[in-house]
Design a protein that fits this description.
The protein has about 150 residues and is an alpha/beta fold. The chain has one domain: 2-Layer Sandwich (Nucleotidyltransferase, domain 5), CATH 3.30.420.10. The protein has helices at about 40-50, 70-90, 100-105, 115-130, 135-150, and strands at about 1-10, 15-20, 25-30, 55-60, 95. Strands 3-2-1-4-5 form a five-stranded mixed beta sheet. A hairpin with a 6-residue loop joins strand 1 (about 1-10) and strand 2. The protein starts with a strand and ends with a helix.
């Protein structure tokens, strides 16, 4: 069985989303960084990789103007931890830009769209394609990345 991972490193809302197709049902789970220590989420990822083949899509990110030094530090630390975890667990991954997966879903951010409106639109889109999944700000991007990973790795 193959599990598809979508990874959003986020500075405060990072998340690993997992989709595992099983008997025609998509089993969905998330590992939200704010709820786990680095050791705990690594162990969760290790256990998953021992049970299933895993393929990951990792959002290629960088610090943004206006982000505080502390936020950028946490953000980049998450990126390093994630990359090393994927390498250590021998989980193949692709780094993709946000524009790549958003274009796949035809979810381009409108020029004058505010960030809250944009995030709401992403959550609503995800809720339409996964009505049984509890969509939140902290897991929406990662689950869309996992869905993108599943759809583009068949």
């Amino acid at each position: 069985m193959t599990s598809y991972l979508g990874i959003d490193p986020g500075s405060s809302s990072g998340c690993i989303a997992v989709i595992t197709p099983h008997d025609g049902i998509l089993i969905k789970a998330t590992i939200e960084f704010s709820k786990y220590t680095t050791r705990e989420w690594f162990d969760e990822l290790r256990d998953l990789s021992l049970e299933n083949d895993c393929i990951a899509v990792f959002e290629k990110v960088h610090g943004m103007p206006g982000m505080g030094v502390s936020s950028v530090s946490v953000f980049m630390k998450n990126v390093g931890h994630i990359e090393m975890a994927l390498l250590a667990l021998d989980i193949p991954f692709r780094e993709i830009t946000p524009q790549t997966w958003m274009k796949y879903f035809n979810l381009k951010k409108e020029k004058d769209e505010s960030k809250p409106d944009w995030k709401r639109r992403l959550r609503e889109y995800l809720q339409r394609i996964m009505p049984d999944f509890k969509v939140k700000n902290d897991n929406a991007d990662a689950m869309l990345l996992a869905y993108y990973c599943m759809k583009t790795n068949k």
